Recover the amino acids of this structure.
């Protein structure tokens, strides 16, 4: 009886461990999965003309230090811009209200993140506050297009002059 | 030559059919399956966790070295997670499983064959496939995906240990980029693979054991063949499934 019980207990332990690992993989890892335990901090919003491939969960950083996460990205049908909700860690509660937010890229080809540059106001952003000054993601393709369009028009005028 | 190969494939397929036909009857006796999950799964746990840790740590080192050249070290978590979930987890676990549990199965059943235990069962009108083979097969099929999940999680923490702990990648960036890049589909692909590998490895092991020559040499040969055939089969199926998943 005893060895049989031991065997069943260790098998049960193994199966429980396996399912715990499965649950971790399916709920904690993918962004679409469930989140257990809510993060702490306060929310602020910012509107961007173009968020590029910014994702929920991307970092919000000030001076290169991560101060929060992107909590939600939604499209605002009123003014056709993207409304990004940022959750900022409670420790950083003195961000001036005239700060500006821009979408930047980590490294050359890294993921996008929101960078906040501090303004000069004495009034700090509070929960539900909004950053007015924003700068959109730089879309590499449109930059390249612009460059080539510029280049081509210059080339054609110079050839006419000759 | 080709005829022999075809005959072999046919025999394995027929054997799989026999196993599947007996599955409902075997599920009615869950005790035997629990015993086999213990043999195939719980006893492989240590080797799987150790290997997972080391594979994850190597991924951390190699991934960091590679990604640093592009200035995107923070994508280390993504690289490690996708590599583990899609490829390394299922494949390495299946190879270890073939070596650890598959050989045990093949030699156990082969020895039963060599000592006429299987024949004795037949004489008592007990179907040895139902009594001996099916619980072992099902135990392996159930155990492997669970082992893969454990391998993935341990490997991920191994990669984090090196990436965040030693190389100094930001912990927040490591996890948030991972969560942003990994989709439920990646997890599902890995599980689907491990399920297929579980079927393949378990089937090869029980087939080789069941059809072993009833001699000491035959049992040894069956054990060796189990490792060789399951490993090659695992890698072949892996290629086919990867091509199918990526070809969407």
């Amino acid at each position: 009886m005893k060895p049989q019980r031991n065997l069943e207990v260790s098998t049960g332990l193994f199966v429980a461990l396996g399912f715990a690992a499965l649950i971790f993989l399916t709920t904690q890892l993918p962004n679409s999965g469930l989140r257990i335990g809510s993060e702490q901090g306060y929310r602020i919003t910012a509107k961007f003309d173009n968020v590029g491939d910014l994702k929920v969960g991307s970092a919000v950083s000030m001076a290169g230090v991560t101060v929060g996460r992107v909590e939600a990205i939604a499209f605002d049908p009123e003014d056709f811009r993207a409304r990004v909700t940022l959750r900022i860690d409670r420790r950083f509660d003195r961000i001036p209200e005239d700060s500006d937010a821009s979408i930047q890229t980590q490294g050359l080809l890294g993921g996008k993140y929101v960078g906040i540059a501090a303004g000069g106001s004495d009034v700090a952003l509070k929960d539900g506050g909004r950053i007015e000054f924003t700068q959109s993601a730089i879309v590499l393709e449109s930059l390249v297009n612009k460059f080539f369009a510029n280049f081509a028009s210059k080339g054609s005028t110079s050839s006419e002059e000759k | 030559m080709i005829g022999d190969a075809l005959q072999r494939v046919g025999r394995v397929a027929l054997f799989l059919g026999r196993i599947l036909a007996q599955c409902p009857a075997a599920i009615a006796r869950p005790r035997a399956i629990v015993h086999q999950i213990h043999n195939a799964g719980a006893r492989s746990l240590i080797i799987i966790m150790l290997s997972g840790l080391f594979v994850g740590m190597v991924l951390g080192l190699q991934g960091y070295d590679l990604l640093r050249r592009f200035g995107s070290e923070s994508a280390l978590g993504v690289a490690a997670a996708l590599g583990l979930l899609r490829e390394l987890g299922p494949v390495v676990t299946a190879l270890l499983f073939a070596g650890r549990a598959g050989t045990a199965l093949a030699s156990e059943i082969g020895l039963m064959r060599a000592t006429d235990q299987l024949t004795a069962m037949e004489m008592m009108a007990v179907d040895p496939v139902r009594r001996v083979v099916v619980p072992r097969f099902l135990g392996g099929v159930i155990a492997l995906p669970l082992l893969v999940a454990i391998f993935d999680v341990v490997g991920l923490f191994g990669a984090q240990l090196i990436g965040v702990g030693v190389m100094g990648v930001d912990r927040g960036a490591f996890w948030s980029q991972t969560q942003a890049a990994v989709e439920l589909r990646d997890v599902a692909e890995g599980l689907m693979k491990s399920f297929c590998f579980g079927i393949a490895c378990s089937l090869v092991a029980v087939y080789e054991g069941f059809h072993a020559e009833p001699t000491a040499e035959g049992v040894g040969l069956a054990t060796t063949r189990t490792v060789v055939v399951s490993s090659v089969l695992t890698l072949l199926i892996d290629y086919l499934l990867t091509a199918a998943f990526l070809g969407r």
User: Anything to note?
Assistant: Chain B has a mean pLDDT of 89. Chain B has one domain: 29-246. Chain B is about 85% helix and 0% strand. Residues 29-246 of chain B form one domain.
